[in-house]
Amino acid sequence: MSPRYAITLLVLVALGCMPPDEVAEPSSPTVVAPHLRIGLFSAISRPQFESSFGLAVRDPDEGVLWTVPVGEILTAELRGDLVRVSSGGQAASRRQLELVPLDSTGTVLVNEKAYRGRIRIAPGLDGLRVINVIDLESYLVSVVGAEMGRRLPEELAALEAQAVAARTYTLRNLERNSAQGYDLAADVSSQVYGGVATEMPLAQLAVDRTRGQILTLDGIPIDAFYSSTCGGHTESSGAVFSGGDRSYLPAQPDVDPSGRAWCAISPAYQWRETWNGAEVAATLRRTLAAERLPVARASDLREARVLDRTASGRIARLELIGSGGRTTVSGAAIRRVLSPPGGGLLRSNDFTLRISRQGNRVERVEANGRGNGHGVGMCQWGAIGRARAGQDYAAILMSYYPGTRLDRAY
Questions:
Q1: What's the rounded Cα separation, in Å, for the pair 367 and 338?
Q2: Contact partners, residue 109, CB within 8 Å, separation at least 6
Q3: Contacts by 390-399 with C-beta closer than 8 Å and gap 24+?
Q4: Which one of 81, 125, 180, 384 is most buried, counting C-beta atoms within 10 A?
C-alpha cells in the first residue's frame, strides 16, 4: 500500500464511485497530511519547465535519468503514447516522467508559473497531462489565497474558516478524478489553485493555525461546499445538486442582528447584466444547444416567466416563451443558458428578468440580481463580514454548516 493511501482519513465515502448520499463507516485517523495530485493541464501540447534550483528528470521505475541545470529549459511533448522530454543535448521517452526540484524548498516553473512539490507528466487524450504532486497543507495555502484574495489581519478568521472548509472538501473528494490520473483539478470545477502566485502570508497563517482540522458528521468529512456571495440567504444543497440533500446545508438567512446581509460588503451583492437583441440571440443559440434544449427560442424569444423559486428565493425553473413554443430551463442550467455577453456564468439564480421589445423584436434583456455562485454552504463574503464583526472561525463554520463538528484529521 502506498503512503498516500495509508494516511488518508475517512475518505472512502468521497471516492467518485460512491453516491453523495451514501455513508461509509469511519476509519482510523490519519497521522500526517496526505499528498495530492492536482491536475494543472489535461491536454497541453508543448509545456516548458525549469527551476531556479535545477531539476531531476525521473522515471518512476528507473530513477533519475539526468539533471537539468539552473537556467536551462526542459520541453515535453506527446509522441504516440509516450512522453518525450528534452533539455540541453539529452532526451528521453517514457510512459510517465516526473520533474523534481534539486532542493526540497525549490519550485518547478510550468510555462513560467511556479508550483511547489513535484510535477508528473503523462499522456492525455489530446496532449499531455501535467499534474502537481504536493502535500495537502502546502496546497491549501495557495487555495485559501486564490479563493479569498488579499485580506486584512482583522479578517483572519474568515481565512481560517476557508482553510477548514477547503481541507474538508479536499479529503472528501480525494480521487474524484482518478480516471484522469489526479485527485482534484486546479480550477473552479474543484477548488481554485494557483500555485505559488496565490500564496499569501495571511493564508499561510490561517492554514498553520487550523492544521489538520476538518468538519465532520458522524466521524465522516462533510460536503463542505462554499461560494462567493449568497446575497443574504444560503441555498439548500438539495435545490442545487441532484441527490445532494444534506442536513447541514440548509437554506437559511445569512444576516446580522440588524437584518443586513453579512455579505452586503461583496462587490457582487447586487448586480445587473444586459444583452441587446443580437447578443441574446447569439447567446441562446450557443447555450441552448449546449444544454441539448430546443434552440428555436434564440430567434423567436418574446417573454420569460419564472415558474418556480426555491425556498431561498432563487429561480428553480425559468420558461422562455416564443411565438413557436416554450422552453423550460431548470436549476444550474439557468446560469449557463443566460451566459453574460462576455462569457462565463450568470452570477447567480437570484434575479429578476425584464425583456424590452420593439414590436415582435427583442431589443434588450436585463437581469437584476444578488449574489455570486450557487449559494450552498459557506458564503465567503459573509464569512469576511462575520470576521470583521469579531466572530472566530469556529463560530463562522457552525453558522454555515449547522450540526457538524470541528475535528482533527491529523
A1: 9
A2: 48, 49, 50, 51, 115
A3: 391/157, 392/157, 392/160, 393/157, 393/158, 393/160, 393/161, 393/164, 393/210, 396/157, 396/158, 396/161, 397/161, 397/164, 397/165, 397/215, 399/254
A4: 384
Distance set, CA 359 to CA 163, 245, 274, 302, 363 (Å):
54, 45, 19, 10, 9
- Alpha carbon distances (Å) from 156 to 145, 163, 349, 382, 396: 12, 10, 30, 13, 12
Sheet holding 213-217, edge to edge: 220-221, 213-217, 405-408
The answer to whether 87 and 71 are in contact (CB under 8 A) is no
Q: d(Cα 315, Cα 352) in Å, to the nearest integer?
A: 9
Q: How far apart are CA 242 and CA 374, in angstroms?
A: 13
Residue type, 397: L
**pLDDT truncated to tens, each residue of the chain (410 aa)?**
333 433 343 332 332 333 333 333 333 444 578 999 999 999 999 999 999 899 999 999 999 999 999 999 999 999 999 999 999 999 999 999 999 999 989 999 999 999 999 999 999 988 999 999 999 999 999 999 999 999 999 999 999 999 999 999 999 999 788 888 999 999 999 999 999 999 999 999 999 999 999 999 999 999 999 999 999 999 999 999 888 899 999 999 999 999 999 999 999 999 999 999 999 999 999 999 999 999 999 999 999 999 999 999 999 999 999 988 999 999 999 999 999 999 999 999 999 999 999 888 899 999 999 999 999 999 999 999 999 999 999 999 999 999 999 999 99
Cα of 68 vs its chain's centroid, Å: 33
> Torsion over CA of 321, 327, 330 and 334, rounded to 10 degrees?
-60
From the CB of residue 109, how many other CB atoms can be counted at a distance below 10 Å? 19
Torsion of Cα atoms, 117 then 162 then 392 then 405, to 10°: -100
